[in-house]
Amino acid sequence: MANTYSNFHDPLGLVMRMLRSRDRAAWSALRRAALSFLLLPLDLAWEALEQKRLREAEPSNLPIILIVGAPRSGTTLLYQTLARFLPVSYLQNFTALFPRSPLIASAKLGPRLQTRAADYHSYYGNTAGWTAPNDGFHVWNRWLGTDRYRVAQQLSPAAQQDMQRFFNAWLSSFQKPLLNKNNRNTACVALLASALRNVYFIEARREPAFVVQSLLQAREHIQGSKAIGWGLASAPQTRGAQNLDYVSEVCEQVFRIEQRLQSDKQRVAPERFLSIAYEDFCREPCQTARHVAQTFLRLDLDENKMRRELKPFHTTNKIRLAREEFQAIRRRLDELYEKPAAPALGNEAYAEASRYDEAMT
């Protein structure tokens, strides 16, 4: 539990807000955190079997497909969709109960758990249900540390070998490519590309102003205040709530994430990278899934069959902040990206921009 909540300003307050939300994904995350204590003896008992499987793992050429991007950029929705419609394996929520033995837990418990009907809901990256896709911090923390906001920039040879063994064992066990989404991996793309020869990346991109807005909302709900940092690359020391300083802080956070990712992309072969715009994905999710399958799996999906179940998603690109806050976001992003300053939002312009999502969909 300490590791789970170490990056949160007020863990008890967060738990209370999650309970009050009555959100099924939030409650699912709390149940997993509580149940992990009760299952610790079983996890420890299976650890020896896990280590044996890791030692015996043969190298695999099956793809490891990692979804990266800034927090609140649509990565979870993309993960849920691709996990459902692509012939891949993925870390499921119940494996987080067994951080020492996720392979053995998957083999022993996975077949016994019933997969739920399509569910594209999430709560700040948390999904609902035991078999729903999981970020996999319980696995990535082995090599990248427990800090969810910052990530190691180098790995020892032993850590790289351990990472390779784990993913070889996973691929050999399931005989399917592995799909995973973890926003923290956005900050170490080049590192992972160097350590894993069969890793590929999907970058989820979203209009930066709406990423910033969503991060501000996440700060308020998760940390209890917009002035307290949350998420990958957030500032360790916040500037406070005066003069909308927190808005500039989050704009700079999003800019840092993108700059780091673009820098890492220059060090990775282009054929290992695919960029997907959140807005385009929401408009044509079937086309996106088909494109990913063709690019990384070398197979064609039956798009007509998918369309019977998978419908377009409504984007959340709608202004939900006060006009002054959103105008401050636009000004600071224009400065960071060296764009001409956006005109001020008058009453009519603000109302029109607030209907952005209807226009997009």
Tally the structural domains: 1
Biggest sheet character: 5 strands, parallel
Question: What global shape is seen?
Answer: globular
State the CATH architecture. Answer: 3-Layer(aba) Sandwich
Unreliable segments (pLDDT under 50, ≥5 consecutive)? 356-361
Question: Average pLDDT value?
Answer: 91
Could you give a short description of this structure?
This protein is of the alpha/beta class and 361 residues long. The protein has a single domain, classed as Rossmann fold. Helix content is 52%, strand content 6%.
Characterise the protein shown here.
This protein has 361 residues and is an alpha/beta fold. The chain has one domain: Rossmann fold (3-Layer(aba) Sandwich), CATH 3.40.50. 52% of the residues lie in helices and 6% in strands. It contains 17 helices and 5 strands. It has helices at residues 2-5, 11-21, 24-38, 40-56, 75-85, 102-109, 137-144, 157-174, 189-195, 208-223, 245-265, 278-283, 285-297, 303-309, 323-336, 347-353, 356-360; strands spanning 64-68, 89-90, 178-181, 199-205, 273-277. Helix 4 crosses helix 8 (157-174).
Q: Notable features of this structure?
A:
361 residues, 5-stranded parallel beta sheet, disordered C terminus, Rossmann fold, globular, 17 helices
Outline the secondary-structure elements.
Blueprint: H1 2-5, H2 11-21, H3 24-38, H4 40-56, E1 64-68, H5 75-85, E2 89-90, H6 102-109, H7 137-144, H8 157-174, E3 178-181, H9 189-195, E4 199-205, H10 208-223, H11 245-265, E5 273-277, H12 278-283, H13 285-297, H14 303-309, H15 323-336, H16 347-353, H17 356-360
Parallel strand pairs: 1-3, 1-4, 2-3, 4-5
